[in-house]
Amino acid sequence: MIFNLIDSDSWTRKPYFEHYLNHVRCTYSMTADIDITLLRAELKYMGIKLYPALIYMITTVVNRHCEFRTCFDSEGRLGFWDCMSPSFTIFHEENKTFSSIWTPFSKQFQTFYDHYLQEIETHKNAKQLFPDTNEPPNTFPISSIPWVSFTGFNLNVYTGGTYLLPIFTIGKYHSQDQKVLLPLSVQLHHAVCDGYHAGVLFNEIQELAVSCKSWLAGK
Question: For a designed S-S bond to 33, which of 23, 104, 111, 181 qualifies (C-beta 3.0 to 4.6 A apart)?
Answer without folding.
Answer: 181
